[in-house]
Amino acid sequence: MSIMVKDILKLETLKGIELVGGKSGIEKCVEWIYVAECFEDPLEGIKWLQGGEIVFITGVGMKGNITALTKLIEGISEKRGVGLIVNVGKYINNIPDESIKVADKLEIPLFTLPWEVKLVEVSKEISNAIILSRIEENSMNHFLSNILFGDGDLEGNATQKANYFGYNLDGKCCICVIHIDEFEKFLSVKKIDDDISVSKIKITFRKVVQGILEKYALKVPIIDHEHEIIFFYRAEENSMNRLEKALKEIQEAIIERVNGLSVSVGIGNAYEDLKMMKQSLNEAQLAIDSGKCQGLNNTIRKYKEIGIYRLLFSIENRIVLENYYLDILGPIIENNKNKDILSVQILETYLSENCNLTSTAEKLFMHRNTLKYRIKKIEEALDCDLHNFEQCMKVKMALYISKMLK
Protein backbone atom coordinates (compact mmCIF):
# COMPACT_ATOMS: atom_id res chain seq x y z
CA MET A 1 0.00 0.00 0.00
CA SER A 2 2.38 2.72 -1.22
CA ILE A 3 1.22 6.32 -0.95
CA MET A 4 -0.23 7.90 -4.07
CA VAL A 5 1.17 10.96 -5.79
CA LYS A 6 -1.78 13.04 -4.61
CA ASP A 7 -0.99 12.10 -0.99
CA ILE A 8 2.27 14.05 -1.00
CA LEU A 9 0.26 17.26 -1.38
CA LYS A 10 -0.95 16.74 2.20
CA LEU A 11 2.56 16.61 3.69
CA GLU A 12 3.66 19.49 5.92
CA THR A 13 6.87 20.34 4.05
CA LEU A 14 5.08 20.43 0.70
CA LYS A 15 2.56 23.19 1.40
CA GLY A 16 4.14 25.36 -1.27
CA ILE A 17 4.04 22.68 -3.98
CA GLU A 18 1.97 23.38 -7.11
CA LEU A 19 0.69 20.88 -9.68
CA VAL A 20 1.24 22.40 -13.15
CA GLY A 21 0.72 19.37 -15.41
CA GLY A 22 -0.15 15.69 -15.64
CA LYS A 23 -3.11 15.94 -13.27
CA SER A 24 -4.69 12.70 -14.55
CA GLY A 25 -1.74 10.72 -13.13
CA ILE A 26 -1.96 11.80 -9.49
CA GLU A 27 -3.43 8.46 -8.33
CA LYS A 28 -0.28 6.56 -9.28
CA CYS A 29 1.58 4.85 -6.44
CA VAL A 30 4.89 6.25 -5.18
CA GLU A 31 7.34 3.46 -4.38
CA TRP A 32 10.26 5.74 -3.50
CA ILE A 33 11.92 9.10 -4.21
CA TYR A 34 14.79 9.75 -6.58
CA VAL A 35 16.91 12.92 -6.76
CA ALA A 36 18.30 13.35 -10.27
CA GLU A 37 20.03 16.09 -12.18
CA CYS A 38 20.35 16.61 -15.93
CA PHE A 39 23.85 16.79 -17.30
CA GLU A 40 24.76 16.72 -20.99
CA ASP A 41 22.26 13.93 -21.56
CA PRO A 42 18.92 14.75 -19.86
CA LEU A 43 18.22 11.04 -19.45
CA GLU A 44 21.52 10.25 -17.74
CA GLY A 45 20.16 11.21 -14.32
CA ILE A 46 17.23 8.77 -14.45
CA LYS A 47 18.79 5.71 -16.04
CA TRP A 48 18.61 3.79 -12.75
CA LEU A 49 14.87 4.20 -12.22
CA GLN A 50 13.11 0.90 -11.42
CA GLY A 51 9.53 2.16 -11.74
CA GLY A 52 7.27 3.88 -9.24
CA GLU A 53 9.71 6.64 -8.24
CA ILE A 54 8.86 10.33 -8.00
CA VAL A 55 11.83 12.34 -9.31
CA PHE A 56 13.28 15.62 -7.89
CA ILE A 57 15.48 18.05 -9.82
CA THR A 58 16.86 21.53 -9.24
CA GLY A 59 18.04 22.02 -12.83
CA VAL A 60 21.62 22.72 -11.78
CA GLY A 61 23.00 20.58 -14.59
CA MET A 62 20.78 21.98 -17.34
CA LYS A 63 22.88 25.12 -17.81
CA GLY A 64 19.83 27.07 -18.92
CA ASN A 65 18.68 24.45 -21.42
CA ILE A 66 15.18 24.07 -20.05
CA THR A 67 13.99 22.32 -23.23
CA ALA A 68 15.73 19.28 -21.73
CA LEU A 69 12.88 19.20 -19.21
CA THR A 70 10.54 17.81 -21.87
CA LYS A 71 12.95 14.97 -22.66
CA LEU A 72 13.27 14.26 -18.95
CA ILE A 73 9.49 13.90 -18.58
CA GLU A 74 9.43 11.53 -21.56
CA GLY A 75 12.26 9.52 -20.00
CA ILE A 76 10.47 9.28 -16.66
CA SER A 77 7.38 7.98 -18.44
CA GLU A 78 9.42 5.41 -20.35
CA LYS A 79 11.04 4.23 -17.11
CA ARG A 80 7.58 4.08 -15.48
CA GLY A 81 8.31 6.80 -12.98
CA VAL A 82 5.26 8.42 -11.42
CA GLY A 83 6.03 12.13 -11.31
CA LEU A 84 8.51 15.00 -11.41
CA ILE A 85 9.06 17.75 -8.81
CA VAL A 86 11.06 20.75 -10.00
CA ASN A 87 12.73 22.96 -7.39
CA VAL A 88 12.18 26.34 -9.10
CA GLY A 89 13.70 29.73 -8.48
CA LYS A 90 17.46 29.50 -9.03
CA TYR A 91 18.23 27.37 -12.08
CA ILE A 92 14.70 27.00 -13.48
CA ASN A 93 12.32 29.93 -13.19
CA ASN A 94 9.42 28.76 -15.31
CA ILE A 95 8.14 25.47 -16.71
CA PRO A 96 7.84 25.60 -20.54
CA ASP A 97 4.37 25.13 -22.01
CA GLU A 98 5.73 22.26 -24.12
CA SER A 99 6.81 20.39 -20.98
CA ILE A 100 3.36 20.84 -19.43
CA LYS A 101 1.69 19.53 -22.60
CA VAL A 102 3.92 16.44 -22.59
CA ALA A 103 3.25 15.84 -18.88
CA ASP A 104 -0.50 16.03 -19.56
CA LYS A 105 -0.25 13.67 -22.52
CA LEU A 106 1.89 11.08 -20.68
CA GLU A 107 -0.04 11.49 -17.39
CA ILE A 108 3.16 12.31 -15.50
CA PRO A 109 2.31 14.68 -12.63
CA LEU A 110 4.57 17.74 -12.89
CA PHE A 111 5.06 19.89 -9.78
CA THR A 112 6.91 23.07 -8.95
CA LEU A 113 8.39 23.58 -5.47
CA PRO A 114 9.77 26.95 -4.25
CA TRP A 115 13.55 27.12 -3.97
CA GLU A 116 13.31 27.96 -0.27
CA VAL A 117 11.97 24.48 0.46
CA LYS A 118 14.89 22.15 1.07
CA LEU A 119 14.87 18.86 -0.82
CA VAL A 120 16.41 17.03 2.13
CA GLU A 121 13.37 17.90 4.28
CA VAL A 122 10.91 16.97 1.55
CA SER A 123 12.61 13.68 0.74
CA LYS A 124 12.74 12.76 4.42
CA GLU A 125 9.02 13.35 4.94
CA ILE A 126 8.00 11.48 1.79
CA SER A 127 10.27 8.57 2.73
CA ASN A 128 8.74 8.42 6.21
CA ALA A 129 5.22 8.47 4.72
CA ILE A 130 6.09 5.56 2.41
CA ILE A 131 7.63 3.52 5.23
CA LEU A 132 4.66 4.16 7.53
CA SER A 133 2.30 3.15 4.71
CA ARG A 134 4.19 -0.12 4.25
CA ILE A 135 4.09 -0.89 7.98
CA GLU A 136 0.31 -0.35 7.92
CA GLU A 137 0.06 -2.54 4.82
CA ASN A 138 1.91 -5.40 6.54
CA SER A 139 -0.41 -5.12 9.55
CA MET A 140 -3.46 -5.07 7.30
CA ASN A 141 -2.21 -8.07 5.31
CA HIS A 142 -1.69 -10.02 8.52
CA PHE A 143 -5.20 -9.14 9.67
CA LEU A 144 -6.83 -10.07 6.33
CA SER A 145 -4.76 -13.25 5.97
CA ASN A 146 -6.03 -14.32 9.37
CA ILE A 147 -9.60 -13.87 8.13
CA LEU A 148 -8.98 -15.96 5.01
CA PHE A 149 -6.43 -18.53 6.12
CA GLY A 150 -6.48 -18.51 9.94
CA ASP A 151 -7.71 -21.55 11.85
CA GLY A 152 -9.22 -19.77 14.85
CA ASP A 153 -12.19 -17.47 15.31
CA LEU A 154 -11.83 -13.77 14.58
CA GLU A 155 -11.10 -11.70 17.65
CA GLY A 156 -13.18 -8.59 18.24
CA ASN A 157 -15.05 -6.66 15.55
CA ALA A 158 -13.29 -7.39 12.25
CA THR A 159 -15.21 -4.67 10.42
CA GLN A 160 -14.07 -2.03 12.91
CA LYS A 161 -10.46 -3.20 12.55
CA ALA A 162 -10.75 -2.85 8.77
CA ASN A 163 -12.14 0.67 9.24
CA TYR A 164 -9.08 1.47 11.39
CA PHE A 165 -6.88 0.72 8.38
CA GLY A 166 -9.07 2.93 6.18
CA TYR A 167 -11.15 0.22 4.48
CA ASN A 168 -14.94 0.10 4.60
CA LEU A 169 -16.12 -3.51 4.83
CA ASP A 170 -19.60 -2.73 6.16
CA GLY A 171 -22.49 -4.62 4.54
CA LYS A 172 -22.08 -7.51 2.13
CA CYS A 173 -18.55 -8.26 0.97
CA CYS A 174 -17.09 -10.79 -1.44
CA ILE A 175 -13.64 -12.02 -2.40
CA CYS A 176 -12.10 -11.40 -5.80
CA VAL A 177 -9.10 -13.47 -6.94
CA ILE A 178 -6.84 -12.46 -9.85
CA HIS A 179 -4.84 -15.55 -10.83
CA ILE A 180 -1.85 -15.75 -13.19
CA ASP A 181 -2.73 -18.34 -15.84
CA GLU A 182 -0.36 -21.32 -16.12
CA PHE A 183 2.48 -19.42 -14.45
CA GLU A 184 4.84 -22.40 -14.20
CA LYS A 185 4.35 -23.15 -17.90
CA PHE A 186 5.00 -19.49 -18.74
CA LEU A 187 8.27 -19.52 -16.77
CA SER A 188 9.33 -22.74 -18.51
CA VAL A 189 8.58 -21.40 -22.01
CA LYS A 190 10.40 -18.14 -21.28
CA LYS A 191 13.27 -20.08 -19.63
CA ILE A 192 12.96 -18.03 -16.44
CA ASP A 193 14.34 -19.90 -13.45
CA ASP A 194 15.90 -17.29 -11.15
CA ASP A 195 14.09 -15.81 -8.18
CA ILE A 196 14.87 -12.19 -9.10
CA SER A 197 13.20 -12.42 -12.52
CA VAL A 198 10.18 -14.21 -11.06
CA SER A 199 9.93 -11.55 -8.35
CA LYS A 200 10.03 -8.75 -10.96
CA ILE A 201 7.13 -10.33 -12.84
CA LYS A 202 5.08 -10.58 -9.65
CA ILE A 203 5.91 -6.97 -8.73
CA THR A 204 4.76 -5.83 -12.18
CA PHE A 205 1.60 -7.89 -11.72
CA ARG A 206 0.94 -6.23 -8.35
CA LYS A 207 1.61 -2.72 -9.65
CA VAL A 208 -0.73 -3.16 -12.62
CA VAL A 209 -3.53 -4.46 -10.41
CA GLN A 210 -3.10 -1.80 -7.73
CA GLY A 211 -2.70 1.04 -10.21
CA ILE A 212 -5.83 0.22 -12.20
CA LEU A 213 -7.97 -0.39 -9.10
CA GLU A 214 -6.91 3.03 -7.83
CA LYS A 215 -7.60 4.56 -11.25
CA TYR A 216 -11.22 3.40 -10.89
CA ALA A 217 -11.34 4.73 -7.30
CA LEU A 218 -11.60 1.19 -5.93
CA LYS A 219 -9.87 1.32 -2.57
CA VAL A 220 -9.69 -2.33 -1.56
CA PRO A 221 -7.49 -4.32 0.83
CA ILE A 222 -5.11 -6.51 -1.20
CA ILE A 223 -3.23 -9.70 -0.31
CA ASP A 224 -0.43 -11.27 -2.38
CA HIS A 225 -0.77 -15.05 -2.30
CA GLU A 226 1.47 -17.31 -4.40
CA HIS A 227 0.58 -16.66 -8.07
CA GLU A 228 -2.50 -14.56 -7.39
CA ILE A 229 -3.80 -11.39 -5.82
CA ILE A 230 -6.78 -11.54 -3.49
CA PHE A 231 -8.88 -8.60 -2.41
CA PHE A 232 -12.02 -7.91 -0.40
CA TYR A 233 -14.77 -5.99 -2.16
CA ARG A 234 -18.02 -4.44 -0.97
CA ALA A 235 -20.69 -5.94 -3.20
CA GLU A 236 -22.70 -2.87 -4.06
CA GLU A 237 -24.68 -2.95 -7.30
CA ASN A 238 -23.72 0.58 -8.30
CA SER A 239 -20.00 -0.24 -8.16
CA MET A 240 -19.93 -3.76 -9.66
CA ASN A 241 -19.88 -2.34 -13.21
CA ARG A 242 -16.87 -0.23 -12.25
CA LEU A 243 -15.15 -3.31 -10.85
CA GLU A 244 -15.76 -5.34 -14.01
CA LYS A 245 -14.37 -2.53 -16.19
CA ALA A 246 -11.29 -2.35 -13.96
CA LEU A 247 -10.78 -6.13 -14.14
CA LYS A 248 -10.99 -6.13 -17.95
CA GLU A 249 -8.45 -3.31 -18.09
CA ILE A 250 -6.17 -5.26 -15.75
CA GLN A 251 -6.33 -8.26 -18.09
CA GLU A 252 -5.47 -6.08 -21.10
CA ALA A 253 -2.65 -4.32 -19.24
CA ILE A 254 -1.04 -7.61 -18.10
CA ILE A 255 -1.02 -8.94 -21.66
CA GLU A 256 0.54 -5.67 -22.84
CA ARG A 257 3.16 -5.42 -20.07
CA VAL A 258 4.27 -9.07 -19.91
CA ASN A 259 4.31 -10.84 -23.26
CA GLY A 260 2.79 -14.32 -23.01
CA LEU A 261 1.13 -13.77 -19.63
CA SER A 262 -2.59 -13.57 -18.91
CA VAL A 263 -4.76 -13.59 -15.79
CA SER A 264 -8.13 -15.09 -14.92
CA VAL A 265 -10.49 -13.62 -12.35
CA GLY A 266 -12.90 -15.32 -9.97
CA ILE A 267 -15.51 -13.55 -7.84
CA GLY A 268 -17.13 -15.33 -4.89
CA ASN A 269 -20.60 -14.78 -3.43
CA ALA A 270 -21.19 -11.85 -1.09
CA TYR A 271 -21.83 -12.27 2.65
CA GLU A 272 -22.41 -9.83 5.51
CA ASP A 273 -20.39 -11.84 8.02
CA LEU A 274 -16.63 -11.51 7.43
CA LYS A 275 -16.26 -15.01 8.85
CA MET A 276 -17.80 -16.19 5.55
CA MET A 277 -14.96 -14.71 3.52
CA LYS A 278 -13.20 -18.09 3.54
CA GLN A 279 -16.25 -19.47 1.76
CA SER A 280 -16.24 -16.58 -0.71
CA LEU A 281 -12.52 -17.16 -1.38
CA ASN A 282 -13.15 -20.83 -2.11
CA GLU A 283 -16.00 -19.87 -4.46
CA ALA A 284 -13.81 -17.35 -6.29
CA GLN A 285 -11.12 -19.99 -6.83
CA LEU A 286 -13.71 -22.51 -8.05
CA ALA A 287 -15.02 -19.91 -10.50
CA ILE A 288 -11.50 -19.73 -11.98
CA ASP A 289 -11.25 -23.54 -11.99
CA SER A 290 -14.49 -23.79 -13.97
CA GLY A 291 -12.82 -21.86 -16.78
CA LYS A 292 -9.76 -24.10 -16.60
CA CYS A 293 -12.05 -27.14 -16.94
CA GLN A 294 -13.08 -25.75 -20.31
CA GLY A 295 -9.51 -25.01 -21.33
CA LEU A 296 -10.01 -21.25 -21.03
CA ASN A 297 -7.61 -18.57 -19.81
CA ASN A 298 -8.06 -14.81 -19.45
CA THR A 299 -11.62 -15.17 -18.10
CA ILE A 300 -13.70 -13.26 -15.56
CA ARG A 301 -16.22 -15.50 -13.79
CA LYS A 302 -18.60 -15.15 -10.88
CA TYR A 303 -19.23 -18.24 -8.80
CA LYS A 304 -23.00 -17.80 -9.04
CA GLU A 305 -22.76 -18.00 -12.85
CA ILE A 306 -20.70 -21.19 -13.31
CA GLY A 307 -23.76 -23.43 -13.57
CA ILE A 308 -23.44 -27.19 -13.14
CA TYR A 309 -19.85 -26.86 -11.92
CA ARG A 310 -21.22 -25.54 -8.61
CA LEU A 311 -22.71 -28.98 -8.00
CA LEU A 312 -19.82 -31.00 -9.38
CA PHE A 313 -17.17 -29.15 -7.35
CA SER A 314 -19.15 -29.88 -4.18
CA ILE A 315 -18.69 -33.64 -4.68
CA GLU A 316 -15.53 -34.42 -2.75
CA ASN A 317 -15.47 -38.14 -3.56
CA ARG A 318 -13.50 -38.28 -6.82
CA ILE A 319 -14.23 -42.00 -7.26
CA VAL A 320 -17.96 -41.23 -7.53
CA LEU A 321 -17.23 -38.83 -10.39
CA GLU A 322 -14.86 -41.21 -12.15
CA ASN A 323 -17.34 -44.09 -11.95
CA TYR A 324 -20.17 -41.97 -13.36
CA TYR A 325 -17.93 -40.77 -16.19
CA LEU A 326 -16.87 -44.32 -17.10
CA ASP A 327 -20.40 -45.73 -16.80
CA ILE A 328 -21.71 -43.21 -19.34
CA LEU A 329 -18.78 -42.66 -21.72
CA GLY A 330 -16.71 -45.80 -21.08
CA PRO A 331 -17.64 -47.58 -24.34
CA ILE A 332 -16.15 -44.80 -26.49
CA ILE A 333 -13.25 -44.08 -24.13
CA GLU A 334 -11.85 -47.58 -23.74
CA ASN A 335 -11.64 -48.43 -27.47
CA ASN A 336 -9.33 -47.05 -30.14
CA LYS A 337 -7.85 -43.87 -28.62
CA ASN A 338 -7.62 -41.72 -31.74
CA LYS A 339 -11.22 -42.45 -32.65
CA ASP A 340 -12.21 -41.84 -29.05
CA ILE A 341 -10.86 -38.31 -29.16
CA LEU A 342 -12.82 -37.57 -32.32
CA SER A 343 -15.95 -39.26 -30.96
CA VAL A 344 -15.84 -37.19 -27.78
CA GLN A 345 -15.25 -34.01 -29.80
CA ILE A 346 -18.21 -34.86 -32.06
CA LEU A 347 -20.40 -35.66 -29.07
CA GLU A 348 -19.45 -32.48 -27.24
CA THR A 349 -20.00 -30.23 -30.26
CA TYR A 350 -23.26 -31.96 -31.21
CA LEU A 351 -24.74 -31.41 -27.74
CA SER A 352 -23.49 -27.81 -27.48
CA GLU A 353 -25.21 -27.14 -30.83
CA ASN A 354 -28.48 -28.52 -29.41
CA CYS A 355 -28.26 -31.69 -31.55
CA ASN A 356 -28.38 -29.72 -34.79
CA LEU A 357 -26.62 -31.74 -37.50
CA THR A 358 -26.11 -28.84 -39.90
CA SER A 359 -24.45 -26.42 -37.45
CA THR A 360 -22.40 -29.24 -35.88
CA ALA A 361 -21.11 -30.32 -39.30
CA GLU A 362 -20.09 -26.73 -40.04
CA LYS A 363 -18.27 -26.42 -36.71
CA LEU A 364 -16.41 -29.70 -37.24
CA PHE A 365 -15.80 -29.18 -40.98
CA MET A 366 -17.49 -32.52 -41.72
CA HIS A 367 -19.97 -33.59 -44.38
CA ARG A 368 -23.46 -33.77 -42.93
CA ASN A 369 -23.94 -37.42 -43.93
CA THR A 370 -20.58 -38.40 -42.43
CA LEU A 371 -21.55 -36.70 -39.19
CA LYS A 372 -24.95 -38.40 -39.19
CA TYR A 373 -23.24 -41.78 -39.55
CA ARG A 374 -20.77 -41.01 -36.72
CA ILE A 375 -23.58 -39.89 -34.40
CA LYS A 376 -25.43 -43.13 -35.07
CA LYS A 377 -22.31 -45.17 -34.21
CA ILE A 378 -21.83 -43.16 -30.97
CA GLU A 379 -25.47 -43.80 -29.98
CA GLU A 380 -24.99 -47.53 -30.61
CA ALA A 381 -21.77 -47.62 -28.58
CA LEU A 382 -23.31 -45.73 -25.66
CA ASP A 383 -26.69 -47.46 -26.00
CA CYS A 384 -28.49 -44.14 -25.87
CA ASP A 385 -30.82 -41.93 -27.91
CA LEU A 386 -29.40 -38.43 -28.29
CA HIS A 387 -32.86 -37.14 -29.14
CA ASN A 388 -33.99 -38.06 -25.64
CA PHE A 389 -33.56 -35.07 -23.29
CA GLU A 390 -32.84 -37.14 -20.16
CA GLN A 391 -30.21 -39.27 -21.88
CA CYS A 392 -28.62 -36.17 -23.39
CA MET A 393 -28.35 -34.68 -19.90
CA LYS A 394 -26.58 -37.80 -18.61
CA VAL A 395 -24.04 -37.63 -21.43
CA LYS A 396 -23.59 -33.88 -21.00
CA MET A 397 -22.95 -34.38 -17.27
CA ALA A 398 -20.34 -37.04 -18.04
CA LEU A 399 -18.60 -34.64 -20.43
CA TYR A 400 -18.49 -31.95 -17.72
CA ILE A 401 -16.96 -34.47 -15.33
CA SER A 402 -14.37 -35.50 -17.91
CA LYS A 403 -13.16 -31.90 -18.08
CA MET A 404 -12.93 -31.73 -14.29
CA LEU A 405 -10.97 -34.98 -14.08
CA LYS A 406 -8.46 -33.70 -16.62
Q: Could you please describe the fold and organization of this structure?
A:
Residues 7-130 form the Purine catabolism PurC-like domain. Residues 345-400 form the PucR C-terminal helix-turn-helix domain. Residues 157-289 form the CdaR GGDEF-like domain. Pfam families: GGDEF_2, HTH_30, PucR. This is Transcriptional regulator. The protein has 406 residues and is of the alpha/beta class. The protein folds into 3 domains: 3-126, HprK N-terminal domain-like (Udp-n-acetylmuramoylalanyl-d-glutamate--2,6- Diaminopimelate Ligase, Chain: A, domain 1), CATH 3.40.1390; 153-313, Reverse transcriptase/Diguanylate cyclase domain (Alpha-Beta Plaits), CATH 3.30.70.270; 318-405, Arc Repressor Mutant, subunit A (Orthogonal Bundle). Helices cover 50% and strands 14% of the residues. The protein contains 14 helices and 12 strands. It has helices at 68-78, 97-106, 119-149, 158-164, 183-189, 195-215, 237-257, 277-293, 309-313, 318-333, 337-352, 357-364, 368-382, 389-405, and strands spanning 3-4, 18-21, 29-30, 32-35, 53-57, 83-88, 110-114, 173-180, 222-225, 228-234, 263-267, 300-302. The strands form 3 sheets. Strands 2-7-6-5-4 form a 5-stranded mixed β-sheet, sandwiched between helices. 31% of the residues are buried.
